Amino acid sequence: MTEPMRVKFWGVRGSHPVPGGGTLLYGGNTSCVEVQAGSQTIILDAGTGIIGLGREMLRRSFAEKRPIEASLFFSHLHHDHTQGFPFFTPAFVPSTRLHLFGTAILERALEDVLNSNFSPPSFPITLQEMGSAKTFHGLRDTNVVWLGQAVGGVRVDEVGQASGAPANTEDLVQVRCLRSYAHPGGVLIYRIEWRGKVLVYATDTEGYVGTDHRLAKFAQGADLLIHDAQYADEHYNGCMVGFPATQGWGHSTAAMAIEVAQSAGAKRLVLTHHEPQYEDETIQAIERRARDCFPNLQAGFEGLEVIIGAEQVGQSHLQPICLDTPALV
Ligand SMILES: [Zn+2]
Ligand SMILES: [Zn+2]
What we know:
Elements: E1 5-11, E2 32-37, E3 40-44, H1 49-64, E4 69-73, E5 97-103, H2 109-117, E6 133-139, E7 143-148, E8 153-158, E9 173-180, E10 187-194, E11 197-202, H3 213-218, E12 224-228, H4 233-236, H5 254-264, E13 268-272, H6 280-291, E14 297-299, E15 305-308, E16 321-322
Parallel strand pairs: 3-4, 4-5, 5-6, 11-12, 12-13, 13-14, 15-16
Antiparallel strand pairs: 1-2, 1-15, 2-3, 7-8, 7-9, 9-10, 10-11
The structure holds zinc ion (2 copies).
The site of one zinc ion has 6 residues, from loops.
């Protein structure tokens, strides 16, 4: 049996966290997804979901008696994708090594923005005072990132550069990004590949009439597509009482996510970045309706684990789900 890629959702809420009894099923923490590919720990976004992940990583580190090393990819730097970082406890541990990736559109944008967000008077300590070793990497969509021991931890290439791909990529994780303008200020969409397994993370993106062909091409053949689906159709269109129309706000409906998944030939679709004003039953209704069009779909929830390329099958809402079987939830 080949080793699977494991994907776990720690935060699936868009815009701001929502505690309370109405969000117990899907969770109220903002965006954070953990990916385990061989020895590599990859984190997608640092919304408040990363706080629980950080505690879990510390527990594992103590149990396994080895320091934490992880690569954190920011889709963009809106508040709901960064606000958990100052409470990510591994970042305070001197033995922790973090690689932080984000857009390189502005010079030193990632480090500067995080620095200005997390320093007095907004926050009592600075990024530098968080004791971990941190390396910042600005990405353009012409970059390919390789993660793994064979490249000394991290190597960032230009697509098609003369030196070519590293030798022996078998154990390396490849991460590519697509700069999308379907969200205010732009966003990076990530494609993670390891041993033939493919995950695409497309949050904070709005669909186009007839689908986002650029994104569908980028996501071609994905085993798992994680896609923004913040709004119910009637909300997006301005037909939901008490809610303004949201066209142009940079988020999708489930129908838009499905169009991308179908065009890309994705095997499974998880909807994320749920609207914070929706309680569980609204998200359940969106999920039910969407499954009629794309059966291998579900609305993401905190604790959901998707195992890509495994032969074991989870049986319930709270168990891991295998991509090679029909949806069991
Ligand atoms: Zn967001
Ligand atoms: Zn955003």
